[in-house]
Amino acid sequence: MENSQLITMTIVAVTSIILTIIVLRLFDRFYRSGAERLAKNIIRRAENDVKNKIREADIAAKEKAIRLKEDTEKSFASQREELHERERMLDKRQDILDKQSDDQRKQEKLVENTQRKLSERLAETDRKNVELTKLIDKERVLLYEASGLNREEASAKLLFLLERDLQSEAGSMIMRHEKKMKEACETMTRNVLLLALQRYASSHTVETTTASVDIPNDEMKGRVIGREGRNIRAFEKASGTDLLVDDTPGVVVVSCFDPVRREISRMALVRLISDGRIHPGRIEEIINKTTGEVNAFVIKSGKDAAQEVGIFDLDDRLIELLGRLYYRTSYSQNVLKHCIEVAFISGSIAAQLGLNEKLARRCGLLHDIGKSADHESEGGHPKIGADLLKRFGEPAEVVGAALGHHDDARIENPYTVIVAAADACSASRPGARRESLELYNKRMDELETVAASFSGVEQAFAIQAGREVRVMVNAAQLTDESAAKVCRDIAKTLTEKLKFPGEIKVTVIRETRFVETAK
Fold this sequence. Notes:
The protein has 15 helices and eight strands.
């Protein structure tokens, strides 16, 4: 019994061991299979991650290449645009140089013809001088023999007699011709008026390129400047002008060659200071608002000027350019008002000469149109104005008046002379323009010095702001006839040696006094 139990237990134990071994082996097999699957999954995920990273890297590289290509294309486009702009500027300058070269060649031909004619006249004059010298020598020998005087004595006496006779004869001739001119002035009105008024033409102007704005205190000046200068930079960028803030208390200067932009900046700065809120956003808002108001006022000023003169068919662009002249000054004279004055004066002159009054007014109104765009183009305002008028289809008379009103071109029609005369009349009338005290005193000294340099003049005074020179002569040295000649010579010398606006009246006074004492 015990043996059978022992055997049974042994069998159970062996069976248990065998089953345990079998179970362990199965568990090991299952564990290895799971580990292999897990390893395969890890490897597969790693491969997928590598593939995704490679794919993302390829996409990023492609996007970077695309951005680089776009930036390169933009840079190339900007460079191409800049090159095209430079090419256009060079073409424009080349056209200007070609025109100047053509004008210079024409002038050279004209000078050559003049020199040739002058050489021929000089040769003829030399020949006549030789003949005259021979004749004078022959007469001199006969005169020496007849008078019994030597050469020096005869020359001195002859020169004295000739000078006295010539002075008397010249004075009588001047008085006689002046009387004839007064009697015949009505029949010579047209030629005299054109030729006399042409000499008034003026060719020099001074422009104002700055405007000052009052600042109430230094704290407001600091607001205008802003933190690290951001407000002033924003203002200059938005307005296209320069703000000059120096140590001068209470003043900020706006500087710009464009008078319209300068006025916009001045008005905007005044509004910003009165408002007190100064920052880049507010600055841009005020400047945009002010620009619209000024542009509207410019157009209104141009239309009002054209309607005042009686011209109703001007191009809109010309009206805008005309209105811009409201903000342009010359010697403190408003250029738009000056153009209106020139238009009316030109029309009056044309009416008296029997010409087209309306066309003359048109020429006068548009003669200084180039001043509204001379800061944008090269050259003087007559040529710029003529090019603008030609571009907008204005008549040849109007273009010629704008080009030649400062004697810069050959005069081809009477309207150019009329506008030049009217321009000078408007500029030189009393109170139209001002000059510095230094220039005024210099001009007065020059007038008196020229008048006092003539023989027989005792005193000379420049009066009426230089519009008249009064000369006192010695009655013992000069007769009435010779005094008339001195008066004419002084006026001629002033015309040749000095530049002055308008006209100068020369008055020569010869006074004889006899004083006796009764005892």
